[in-house]
Design goal:
homodimer; alpha/beta; eight-stranded parallel β-sheet; globular
């Protein structure tokens, strides 16, 4: 795992660098997904499931964003995916400049689909464009029904919501219909897929959605 | 619920205001607990459990920190607890200035134990002192074993960790011993209590710990 340590996050000029990233990625034919969600929502597990099920002709790469460490990067590298680790030195999100650094260490010409797994956080990542084509948020069934009203920006800026860990539903007090009503209250058009990375439930719809994003 | 809307977070002078808050709270005989954790970790459920089990002679109050809304404040108000809601206008944490505003709306002379429920976030709240006597973090069993290595500051600055939702352990792949090893690796002295707000397991130890904090 290559690890890049970033000293301090800079908001200034973020949108300009995000546009440059997007242009470079599009020129190289790369579709980029910014994957966001709370700590432990199941972002890496979703990516592990994706690696095994995506059409093998689609060449994947991953940029992993973490405050410290490279645990998730190593999980994905074990599956044969090229991974670059970004350590944010305390910053609670990735910004476009950090991702630009990450792109320098990837072979974009050999990449069709790039996942950028953001720092686990339901707040700050929603505020920073990084040059992505799509924003996908992961919300776990264990997080409760009230998250849309408490963290509306994440739900409003995302193009897709994955409701993860649905295999746990029989053991939780969560009412999925009540949750979906809350989601619609803050983001009426947000599509929601219900997925379990453990059982594979919902995987087909997720892969179909992803393949629909490819250029 | 009284709601205070804060325009913009300010880091400057935070420690000075935190010291002032702490002095004011101590002068009034109030013990203050800053409660932190990811979205959906179970912070409000822990408080609900606490209200029902704490010695009735201990007079409680709560400051609720949320980006938007007052869902948790209303849950606690229903139990008869004085609650002040702070809305952070997008800020991902409470700071000392926001808490100072909140204190103005509480009757400190009639309060023995004040909980400040921070914004759901495993990163930023750990960086801001608010004038608390104790920092308590809640980590849910559903968040996985790797969080200490990924969010070390929260584990290092906390005085107690609550491992919540332990009633779900039979349905998860989590190895609690592996998690506790990870906790000790980043914060060797951090005490950990295993709690289920749903079943009441571990409640006695939590209440004992709290009562040991009272002046």
């Amino acid at each position: 795992v290559r690890t890049i340590r970033i000293e301090g996050a800079v908001m200034e000029g973020n949108d300009r660098i995000a546009d440059e990233n997007r242009r470079a990625l599009r020129d190289a034919g790369v579709t980029t997904v910014n994957l966001m969600g709370s700590p432990g929502a199941g972002k890496t597990a979703l990516l592990e499931m994706t690696v095994g099920r995506l059409d093998p002709s689609v060449r994947l790469a991953v940029i992993e964003g973490d405050i410290e460490g490279s645990l998730d990067a190593r999980r994905l590298e074990r599956l044969g995916v090229p991974v670059v680790q970004i350590n944010t030195s305390g910053a609670c999100h990735l910004d476009a400049r950090m991702v630009r650094e990450g792109l320098r260490h990837l072979d974009l010409g050999s990449t069709d689909l790039l996942f950028v797994e953001n720092v686990g956080n339901l707040v700050c990542p929603a505020e920073f464009r990084i040059g992505e084509d799509r924003k996908v948020m992961v919300l776990s069934t264990t997080e409760g029904e009230d998250k849309p009203l408490k963290y509306p920006l994440m739900f409003r800026t995302s193009d897709l919501m994955i409701l993860s860990k649905i295999d746990l539903l029989p053991h939780l007090d969560l009412d999925p219909d009540a949750l979906l009503m809350q989601v619609r209250a803050v983001s009426p058009e947000l599509p929601v897929l219900q997925v379990s990375a453990r059982s594979g439930q919902g995987a087909r719809q997720w892969i179909d959605w992803l393949e629909g994003c490819l250029g």
